[in-house]
Amino acid sequence: MRSLTRMKSLAAMLLAVATLCAGCSPPTRPLPTVAKVDLRRYGGLWFEIARLPNPFQRSGAVATAEYTPQPDGTVKVRNTELRANGNSKAIEGSALAVAGSGEARLKVKFGGLAALAPVPQSGNYWIIALEPDYSAALVGTPDRKFLWLLARSQKLPAATRTRLVNRAAELGFPVERLLIGDWSRLR
Asked: Which of 90, 93, 47, 89 is nearest to 70 (CA)?
């Protein structure tokens, strides 16, 4: 009898804690993407203007991403990290558009040890903003842990950068943590 009372008390306490915790974190809204992406136009070289810190890129480095659409519908991906000391490191992989996403959500898989990382069916590369002329893009993940601001050149007009960073903030990304790429250090 005594243990039943304890179990009921414990269950009531756990329910109260769960209810309180549910109110502690705001619900995550679904992350919208652009309606449609032409992967042929999206292909080519992109320069990283800003990104959220992540475990696979050094904080003082900048990066390029090169996307090459393939005849089979996949996209060849080559990311190159460039360091101020002149060293670079590249990783290659491939991407496949998620069906029904307007090619705005991609499943990107890299080779080597990175191949061990699971890729969600909904994709791990979501294009959430794209300039009409394909000169800049904002790419993130639905959990808001990863974010990249990419451009076709090493410099992006301040107004465009501000607008895209503000869009990321509206979508719930922690933009106060953004690392701004310093391309001038490579010269």
From this structure: 93
